[in-house]
Amino acid sequence: MVTALRTRESIRDKWWVTLGAPYLMIGLQLFAIMILDPTDYPSSSAYIWVVRILSVGFFVTLVVALVGLYFDIIYVVESSKWTPSMWYSLMFFVPIVGVIIGLHYLSKRSRYVGLSLSFSA
What we know:
Layout: H1 21-35, H2 44-79, H3 97-112
């Protein structure tokens, strides 16, 4: 049984969108590594600050995605007969296999409640 701290509002069905945030940030980091040349910066500390900002951004998106997964699981449980496990959070911590776990979660979620992106109130 999934329980959560609740308010009067129902959990929205758009939380699944946050699941891709850490992967997008990793992509941005890899892109930055490919195009940024440490010698282009006036000092090595400026380059290090860029790397730090990207790293902090990754950890922020990771937390957002974990919270998003939590609320998405609550929504799925309330809206269907499927009860996903928090074990799906491994999609964020297991390299390469995590993408497969994430796609599996989104596939099952699509079968049970869909993957709506309409932003109507």
